[in-house]
Amino acid sequence: MANPRLNKAIETLKDNGVRMTPQRHAILDFLLSSMSHPTADEIYKALESNFPNMSVATVYNNLRLFKEAGLVRELTFGDASSRFDANMTDHYHVICKQCGQITDFDYPYQSEIEREASKKTGYFVDSHRMEIYGLCPECNSKSQIKN
Ligand code: ZN
Ligand code: MN
User: Fold this and answer.
1) How far is the CA of 32 from the centre of ligand 1 (A)?
2) Domain range 92-146, CATH class
């Protein structure tokens, strides 16, 4: 096994009393190597040919386990299905309005805005979300051709 992140994640699950199964291993591996913030359905479709007995419910149950163990975070966007992100560091996302692609955007975490929000509203503030919207390079070049 060459992926140190995968080994570490397996250890974390073991510490949480979660035993490894081939399906669980495949879902975890897929998530850790994916940069695309997949939905449960996308994970299912990517792996179903290797695991004909796997159901979407299996994928969901595993994602819930991984989330509880702090290995992935769930990204919700209104009514659309949740997406899953194995990058647990604080980071922002740029989202394509055309195709829905989500790309990590490394930018200093803006803790100042949390302090300001707390100061101005009296709330106890512990997090914030910021999303940047536009067209990904592919969609943008397609829209340029049409015009
Ligand atoms: Zn796009
Ligand atoms: Mn991300």
Assistant:
1) 22
2) alpha beta
Tokens of 115: 């302090």
* CATH 1.10.10.10 describes domain 4-75: yes
CA-atom Rg of the chain in angstroms = 18
Nearest ligand atom owner, CA of 91: 2
For the record, the structure tokens of 126 come out as 């512990």
Tens digit of pLDDT per residue, the chain (147 long)?
A: 568 889 999 999 999 999 999 999 999 999 999 888 999 999 999 999 999 999 999 999 999 999 999 999 999 988 788 999 999 988 999 999 999 899 999 999 999 999 999 999 999 999 999 999 999 999 999 988 766
How many C-beta atoms lie closer than 10 Å to residue 14's C-beta? 12
pLDDT single digits (tens) 99-121: 989 999 999 999 999 999 999 99
Tell me the CA distances in angstroms from 72 to 28, 32, 85, one per residue in order.
9, 9, 5
- Ligand closest to Cα of 139 equals 1
Q: How far is the centre of ligand 2, averaged over its atoms, from the C-alpha of 105 (Å)?
A: 8
Q: How far does the centroid of ligand 1 lie from the alpha carbon of residue 140, in Å? A: 7
Domain ranges of the chain: 4-75, 92-146
CA of 100 to the centre of ligand 1 (A): 6
